[in-house]
Design a protein that fits this description.
Elements: H1 13-24, H2 28-37, H3 42-50, H4 69-81, H5 90-94, H6 96-102, H7 105-117, E1 122-126, E2 142-146, E3 149-157, E4 167-173, E5 187-193, H8 194-197, E6 202-207, E7 215-226, E8 230-231, H9 237-273, E9 275-276, E10 279-280, H10 285-314, H11 319-344, H12 355-363, H13 372-383
Parallel strand pairs: 1-4
Antiparallel strand pairs: 2-3, 3-7, 4-5, 5-8, 6-7, 9-10
Helix pairs in contact: 1-4, 4-9, 6-9, 9-10, 9-11, 10-11, 11-12, 11-13
The structure holds flavin-adenine dinucleotide.
């Protein structure tokens, strides 16, 4: 008897069809206009929420669909393959593990049904700080316990979607670095209700970027939050954030694969259509081969991403696979983007083809949420056992 294909995701087809139908209502001109204005795609985010797609990872008991990460990854991949962009909403999916695994029953019962229904938006994730950069344990934002609340002081940067979110997952130091045994101790995670915070100790300043990404810097000046906002145990937050990072890497890799598929499809269609020297440009092997190579690279990255998601869903360790998937997928999508511009010649630069927009959008993923060097460092040191460099 043939073995069932462990990577068979055909049961996801109805969900992917829903994604395709939804994205068809948000074609290129919608994204171009948002890009030109640098405006948040509110209608798209609302449609994704209404359709239940954004609540894929929220358990059914809290009003979500209770789907595995493999399904969430397929949803985000399809969004990107349709030419849309999930950066405006993906944080809710990749922070979900932190809330589900480490949040209290009260936190889950209070927030998850409202997040699933769209009454509350969980789209802000405050980890990165201007001085610490990638060295997360060196963050200096402090949360000091005072009776039944914490007082937050400090600054975050690149806190995306903060202006379009009601809740934020925040990492802050609760014990100074020089007073803990290990530098990873003494960090805590909070679920901050931003509706009460803005103007009362929280200030948000937008940052204009290479592409349309609602990112910001945020400042905490004696922001008081209830002690009940703490997720899990005080001082153990670094571990909770690390826990969620494999999911984040897999979801981002999936977006890259979606982008890669879009670039390959778009370039293929153009190469068949565009006539120069009385023949389609795609008849020249110099044009064909880069498209074929991009296709092969995207497919290979997809295999690693699916394997990472499969391991994640079975509860097996998947740090190696998730990191490698994110690196391979972000590099494959970037090379596919470059190929797509080249295939389009001058028209690759014209706004109306969407190629230059997608090219700018997909560049992010070699830097955020984690840069390629840090992934290579993880593989070198944690997988291959090479000496630690930092
Ligand atoms: C558009 C955008 C949205 C973002 N959204 C969020 C968000 O919502 N929440 C959030 O918390 N963060 C967010 N980030 C931050 C993002 O995760 C960081 O930019 C990223 O992790 C890199 O950190 P850094 O910018 O501080 O780079 P740095 O740490 O300053 O590193 C700069 C460069 O040096 C390299 N480098 C540093 N140290 C080493 C080393 N030891 N060995 C080899 N190379 C090294 C890095 O690979 C990188 O290429 C976002 C960033 C961007 C650009």
């Amino acid at each position: 008897m043939p073995h069932a294909d462990p990577m068979d995701t055909s049961e996801l087809e109805p969900i992917l069809e829903t994604v395709r139908k939804l994205c068809a209502d948000f074609p290129g001109p919608y994204w171009r206009e948002r890009d030109r204005e640098r405006s948040y795609p509110t209608a798209f985010v609302e449609a994704m929420t209404r359709s239940g797609l954004l609540g894929a990872l929220i358990p059914e008991v809290y009003g979500g669909s209770g789907l595995p990460l493999t399904a969430a990854a397929a949803i985000l991949e399809e969004v990107h393959a349709c030419g849309a962009n999930a950066a405006a909403l993906h944080a809710q999916m990749y922070t979900m593990g932190t809330v589900l695994r480490h949040g209290s029953e009260t936190q889950k019962a209070t927030y998850l049904p409202q997040i699933a229904s769209g009454a509350l938006r969980l789209q802000a994730f405050g980890v990165t700080e201007p001085t610490a950069g990638t060295d997360t344990t060196s963050i200096s934002t402090r949360a000091d316990r005072q009776g039944d609340h914490y007082v937050i002081n400090g600054q975050k940067v690149w806190t995306s979607r903060a202006e379009h979110s009601d809740l934020m997952i925040l990492l802050a130091r609760t014990t100074p670095k020089d007073q803990v045994a290990r530098k990873t101790d003494g960090l805590s995670v909070f679920l901050v209700d931003m509706r009460d915070a803005v103007g009362n100790g929280l200030t948000i300043k937008p940052i204009r970027t290479l592409f349309n990404h609602a990112t910001t810097e945020i400042f905490f000046d004696n922001l008081k939050i209830p002690a009940s906002a703490l997720i899990g145990e005080e001082g153990k937050g670094f571990r909770y954030i690390l826990d969620g990072m494999n999911a984040e890497r897999i979801l981002i890799a999936s977006e890259c694969i979606g982008d890669g598929r879009w670039f390959v499809q778009t370039a293929t269609a153009y190469a068949k259509d565009r006539q120069v020297f009385n023949r389609p440009i795609g008849q020249n092997q110099g044009v064909q081969f880069p498209i074929a190579r991009a296709y092969a690279e995207v497919r290979a990255a997809k295999l690693m991403t699916r394997e990472a998601a499969r391991l994640y869903d079975t509860g097996a360790p998947c740090g190696e696979e998730a990191n490698i998937a994110k690196m391979l997928a972000s590099e494959a999508s970037w090379r596919a983007a470059d190929m797509c511009v080249q295939t389009h010649g001058g028209f690759g630069f014209a706004e109306e083809y969407d190629v230059e927009r997608k090219f700018r959008e997909t560049r992010l993923y070699q830097v955020a949420p984690i840069s390629t060097n840090l992934i290579l460092s993880y593989v070198a040191e944690h997988v291959l056992g090479l000496p630690r460099s930092y």
